[in-house]
Amino acid sequence: MQTPLNIARCGVLSAGFPVPLSLRCIVLNFYLLSMSYRNYRELSDEEIQKIGELYPVTPNRELARRFNVSVDAIQDYLAYPNGWKKNRKAVLIGSRNGRSLTEKEIGWIIRHYQNTKNEDILRKFGIGESTLHRVARKYGLKKTRQFMKKSQQAAANIGMAVCKEFGIYEQNAEYACQQWEERKASGEPLSRWKCFQPGESNKTRLSPKRYKECIEKSKASRNETIRKERMRIRWGFEQKTKLKLVGGGSIRSSHRHLFRKAGYIVDRASNEVYFDEETVRHPIMESNAHKWGLKVLPY
Q1: Interior/surface letters 178-215, b for 16+ CB within 10 angstroms, e for the rest
Q2: What is the DSSP letter of 102?
Q3: Which residues, 6+ apart, have CB-to-CB distance to 37 below 8 Å?
Q4: Maximum distance among all alpha carbons in the chain?
Q5: From CA 173, how far away is CA 169, in angstroms rounded?
Q6: Gap between the terminal Cα atoms of the chain
Q7: Alpha-carbon distance 54 to 48, whole Å?
Q8: C-alpha span between 251 and 254 (Å, rounded)
Q9: CA dihedral 50, 56, 62, 63 (to 10 degrees)
Q10: Neighbouring-strand partners of residue 272
Q11: Per-residue CA distances from 139 to 35, 63, 134, 135 (Å)
Q12: CA angle, 73 as apex, 70 and 74 as ends, to 5°?
């Protein structure tokens, strides 16, 4: 008898028929979920009774973690049939037994929210997602761009490792490329693609509030990039972008161009002019270089 794991790995049924890649992915997901959680029918009467006592004042995610079942099993197969209800007061303040977050706990969340997973915060204070989101909105808390990028990369690495373990990573890549080529060759109108359409922009796609936040975020990101590039130029490090950030305007830029044209060595976005043994020097230009904020140095 074949198990879901064997079907996902080899992609062939016992009768010798090949299994489509999409069906293999479904089987693999079913297998992984079955490994992660117990079936709610395996819960004993004592565990169900305990869940019923904790349900009104405990987040479903915490119950699922404690009893090793899915959140859907808690909500759909236990709470709904048994008529369990949440204690609205406890849910609104995000606490157990009516306990609200203290000022010290809120201060900890404010300091660590931007670089800490929500799951860790929920587990630490025993609160629900709604409470954490409410605190984040109230104090304007957001995850840093570096933390989000790191989290997304970690999730992608886990997915890649699982696919490679079951030997379907390369097939998934080929399948995605095949789907893309088939879609381009199908002649489907661009208007039905989920992407930017001709003449569309973020201003037309987003609400005014969301568009304003997007512009402010882009502005802050560019200002931070410029600040870092200026620091690299000041301390003599190589730039990581092609931004032209050397001050002095067009006059200084034109004189740098004249020095470069005369055979001097001038690095991009640099205020230092170098000469070597093969350079034909121009004393007048060198004597006036300081007027334009340039330094003439031997190479």
Answers
A1: eeeeeeeeeeeeeeeeeeeeeeeeeeeeeeeeeeeeee
A2: P
A3: 64, 68, 69, 70, 73
A4: 96
A5: 6
A6: 76
A7: 10
A8: 5
A9: 30
A10: 295
A11: 39, 28, 9, 6
A12: 95
Reading the block at residue 126, the tokens are 């025993």
d(CA 83, CA 215): 47
The amino acid that residue 144 corresponds to is T
What is the rounded distance in angstroms from the CA atom of residue 146 to the CA atom of residue 124? 23
Q: What is the pLDDT of residues 99-153, one digit of tens each?
A: 578 889 999 999 999 999 988 898 888 887 788 888 999 999 999 888 998 988 9
Q: Which amino acid is at 78?
A: L
Residue of 240 and 189 predicted with greater confidence: 240
Q: In the structure encoding, which two tokens stand for residue 129, read together?
A: 């997602």
Burial of 171 (0-12, 13-18, 19+ CB in 10 A): middle
User: To the nearest 10°, the Cα dihedral for 232, 236, 242, 245?
Assistant: 70
Q: What is the pLDDT of residues 54-101, one digit of tens each?
A: 888 777 877 887 888 888 888 888 888 888 888 766 555 444 444 578
Q: Which residues is 265 bridged to in the sheet?
A: 274
User: Residue 179 — φ and ψ, nearest 5°?
Assistant: -60, -40
Report residue 65: phi and psi, to 5°.
-70, -40
Query: What is the pTM (predicted TM-score) of this model?
Result: 0.40
